Amino acid sequence: MSRTLRIGLSIAVSAVFLGFAVRKVDWSEAGAALAAAQYLYIVPMLVVSIWSLYIRAQRWRVLLRPLGTPAMRTLVAATNIGFMANMVLPLRMGEVIRPVLVSRREREPLGGVLATIVLERIFDLFMILFLFGVAAATVSVSAAVRQWGIRMFVVALIVGVGVAFVRWQEALALRLLASALQPLPARFAEPIDQFFRGFVRALEILDSPRTFLQVLGWTLYLWLVISSTYAFGVLAFGLPVPLVVGSVAIMAVIAIAVSAPSAPGFIGAFQLGCTLGLAIFGVSQSQAIAYSIVLHLTQFAGTVGAGLYSLTREGMSLRQLEEVSETDVAPA
Fold first, then answer.
1. 268 CB-near residues (< 8 Å, 6+ apart)
2. Are 128 and 245 in contact (CB under 8 A)?
3. Side-chain half-sphere of 166: how many Cα atoms within 13 Å?
4. Is the sign of the CA dihedral 141, 142, 147, 151 positive or negative?
5. pLDDT at 252 over 90
6. Domain that holds residue 174
7. Are 250 and 274 in contact (CB under 8 A)?
């Protein structure tokens, strides 16, 4: 699929999501909610948005231990720039840009660094599904939401078991992959095989229970900190949502929504996640849209601000970032 077509599809997905998010909005009610909001809470929202990037860099350093020990400054800069790129460039280019930057600065193998990004997503997926399952089990929600919570909890366990199988049955996993790739042309099979082997190497951290628990702890800490952003939003709008557990549930729904392919900045996906997450607690779509506008703009400002700061310190431009993703990743 061509790059242009993928960009077009991501924009179309965002448009569909945004349409669903606003289809029943009473804009006068949304305007009233925005007018009544307490905007002092934007300050801690901004702080948390920036702090969460630093936590990601700290966790990434632990994940990279099998490959080396990159400088913390490099990891912070790459994380800030990468997440900014996700906000302003198409196709989540930041997920490729940040490992490329680390590979260049620290002279680490790109395949191995890229694999740690996949490992991050697996830990994130596990934690998001786990936290949503816990939240659904501990707050007063409908039977349907509770059932979804149980299902997500089960999926989290399946993800965990799958990762454990690949790590502790590495030879069998590689044989199964080789069998699955055998019918494919070499130009498709070889990159998949190389990537999977890099991923297996990244999983070496699981050989150390201490390191594994550190990554798990950092991931839990990360998503609880991120959920506090949504808690401040609940306070700002005075919503009838349980502050701690409710914010965790909202965070999980939004995280799942923005994982879908969408336009830069997760436009549409973020709004849909807010409306679905707040609907669990009986918040109207109009109030949810007002909430999403403030939260989205605040997170955008914090992430882009941190990215521009690091971009300036590294002496790079946005055009150079696009060139990095186009020239370095292709050979990998």
1. 13, 14, 15, 16, 17, 18, 19, 21, 262
2. no
3. 19
4. negative
5. yes
6. 3-328
7. yes
